[in-house]
């Protein structure tokens, strides 16, 4: 059996096209959605992500700008900028690209962003709202995965879902969304004892572990939906996910590729959250 491929690139494009009318309707009322992305330091991967976020906004008529700081900048300078952006009526979303340099207190920076402009959904208030089942902003990557389930008509109710990875950015919010959707959820990590026993039970398997081709075909239940959140750069420069795609596609029922799977959905949901923030403000 060969799995059905869930085409994130096509779904992302379809959604982005549908956002244009919402952006123009807001702009006509004087509320063109605006996103500021703050980048500290020169991590090459982060630079690519940030450029794609800004360009993704501009391509659908939103306002977007990047603010960059040298890695040695002090936290107070960044906090002062965030306070300015919190007060700027033309800015609806503020995102600080992670990871930050080691001398930063990441939590303090994320908490400084006004909760109503926290389009990443990382502010404690927004994490709490998600945990309570009343999300205000859903973190972009797991939000994109949920949209893919929706598109693929995957009914999550009562399904065994296994998430490999426990990060604040993907694993934890992914688990909360699956719980809220009625799945039976297990959160594993790369060191989980007898990981195979968990993954083989999974009707839904989400890999967000950050290790190239970590999920192999023997770990997948026949017919399972396999979601690959990994973006790993191999020594030859090629991108590769956390899932051994070629092996797993022979076992899974549905599977996401890398590239062209979850990746394009992440930025799409960032655009969705920023438009949503602007719509709430416009009333
Ligand atoms: N670094 C990796 N993924 C993300 C993300 O979704 N948001 C932010 N702010 N930083 C990231």
From TrEMBL:
InterPro entries: Aminoacid_DH-like_N_sf, NAD(P)-bd_dom_sf, THF_DH/CycHdrlase, THF_DH/CycHdrlase_cat_dom, THF_DH/CycHdrlase_CS, THF_DH/CycHdrlase_NAD-bd_dom
GO cellular component: cytosol
Family assignment from sequence similarity: Belongs to the tetrahydrofolate dehydrogenase/cyclohydrolase family.
Record NCBIfam families: PRK10792.1, PRK14186.1, PRK14189.1
Keyword Signal: no
HAMAP family in UniProt: THF_DHG_CYH
Biological-process GO terms, alphabetical: L-histidine biosynthetic process; methionine biosynthetic process; purine nucleotide biosynthetic process; tetrahydrofolate interconversion
Species in which this protein is naturally found: Dechloromonas denitrificans
Top-level lineage group: Bacteria
Tetrahydrofolate dehydrogenase/cyclohydrolase catalytic domain mapped to chain residues: 6-120
Lineage, top ranks: Bacteria, Pseudomonadati, Pseudomonadota, Betaproteobacteria, Rhodocyclales
Catalytic activity: (6R)-5,10-methylene-5,6,7,8-tetrahydrofolate + NADP(+) = (6R)-5,10-methenyltetrahydrofolate + NADPH; (6R)-5,10-methenyltetrahydrofolate + H2O = (6R)-10-formyltetrahydrofolate + H(+)
Subunit structure: Homodimer.
GO MF, one annotated term: methenyltetrahydrofolate cyclohydrolase activity
Protein name according to UniProt: Bifunctional protein FolD
Pathway where this protein functions: One-carbon metabolism; tetrahydrofolate interconversion
Binding-site residues, NADP(+): 165-167, 231
Main function: Catalyzes the oxidation of 5,10-methylenetetrahydrofolate to 5,10-methenyltetrahydrofolate and then the hydrolysis of 5,10-methenyltetrahydrofolate to 10-formyltetrahydrofolate.
């Amino acid at each position: 059996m060969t799995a059905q491929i869930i085409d994130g690139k096509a779904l992302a494009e379809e959604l982005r096209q549908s956002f244009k009318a919402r952006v123009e309707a807001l702009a006509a009322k004087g509320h063109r959605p605006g996103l500021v992305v703050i980048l500290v330091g020169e991590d090459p991967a982060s630079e690519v992500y940030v450029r794609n976020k800004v360009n993704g906004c501009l391509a659908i008529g939103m306002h977007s700008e990047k603010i960059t700081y040298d890695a040695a900048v002090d936290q107070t300078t960044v906090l002062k900028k965030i306070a300015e952006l919190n007060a700027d009526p033309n800015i609806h979303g503020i995102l600080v690209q992670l990871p930050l340099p080691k001398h930063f207190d990441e939590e303090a920076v994320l908490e400084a962003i006004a909760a109503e402009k926290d389009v990443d959904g990382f502010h404690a208030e927004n994490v709490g709202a998600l945990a309570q089942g009343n999300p205000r902003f859903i973190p972009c990557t797991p939000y994109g995965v949920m949209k893919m389930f929706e598109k693929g008509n995957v009914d999550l109710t009562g399904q065994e879902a296994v998430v490999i990875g426990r990060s604040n950015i993907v694993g934890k919010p992914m688990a909360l969304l699956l719980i809220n959707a009625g799945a039976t959820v297990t959160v594993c990590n790369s060191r989980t004892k007898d990981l195979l026993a968990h993954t083989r039970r999974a009707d839904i398997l989400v890999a967000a572990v950050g290790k190239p081709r970590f999920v192999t075909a023997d770990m997948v239940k026949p017919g399972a939906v396999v979601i690959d959140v990994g973006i790993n750069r191999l020594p030859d420069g090629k991108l590769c996910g956390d899932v051994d795609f070629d092996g797993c596609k022979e076992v899974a029922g549905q599977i996401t590729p890398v590239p062209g799977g979850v990746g394009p959905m992440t930025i799409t949901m960032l655009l969705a959250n920023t438009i949503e923030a602007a719509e709430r403000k416009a009333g």
